[in-house]
Amino acid sequence: MMPAPNSAALLLLLLLPGTLTGNTDSVPIQVEVQNPIDKIPPVTYSTHVVYRGILLGAMKTLMASNSDFKFTFTEDPNYGPYLHSVNGVAGNKEKHTYWELLVQSPNGKITRPNVGIGCYIPNANETIILRFGEW
Ligand code: B12
């Protein structure tokens, strides 16, 4: 006879839908491009990411579906994808410019993730801010 599932395991399954079953939910997010250096007005795009998917995936999806949004990245041997350019504007070592990654949660709070586009996992309804800035 099959042993009865223990109650803690049963509770976990009930509380975490999608953890064991395939979750096909698409998580809506926005991507906002800010370039105060070149005085370009901010542009906001809507896109989505798969359940627990990385930001890089959402950015690729957006680029494939919207010809106004494009980006390039380089591969760092230690930290993975480094966002090099957005909409034709590239960071520059000599000029000390780069694309900063910021996240605005639905309550308006802005944070600066301590990982890059290849590691950050967006939450529903976040606005991902790609901000051209100086270091
Ligand atoms: C200086 C620095 C920067 C500078 C680099 C300027 C330059 N060209 O010199 C600037 C300000 C551009 C920067 C940006 C970011 N950084 Co930084 N940075 C550092 C720091 C303090 C030192 C790196 C260094 O000079 N090492 C010495 C040199 C000789 O080694 P290197 O391998 O050639 O270094 C290169 C890489 O580190 C690369 N780099 C720097 N930051 C990042 C971040 C990512 C995700 C990638 C792929 C590459 C990368 O730039 C360096 C110069 O080419 C480290 C922390 C540390 N103490 O190591 C964090 C660090 C590497 N950065 C980090 C982060 C998170 C970022 C940002 C994502 C922050 C943000 N939210 O915007 C952005 C990158 C956004 C993007 N465009 O993809 C994290 C990476 C952790 C991770 N696992 O992803 C670190 C470890 C700091 C932390 N928070 O813990 N960073």
Automatic annotation (TrEMBL):
Q: Which InterPro entries match?
A: Cobalamin_Transport, Transcobalamin-like_C
- Kindly list the GO molecular function terms attached to this UniProt entry: cobalamin binding
One GO CC annotation:
extracellular space
Keywords linked to the UniProt accession? Signal
Transcobalamin-like C-terminal domain sequence ranges: 62-133
Its BP terms in the Gene Ontology are: cobalamin transport
Annotated signal sequence range? 1-21
What is the recorded name of this protein? Answer: Transcobalamin-1-like
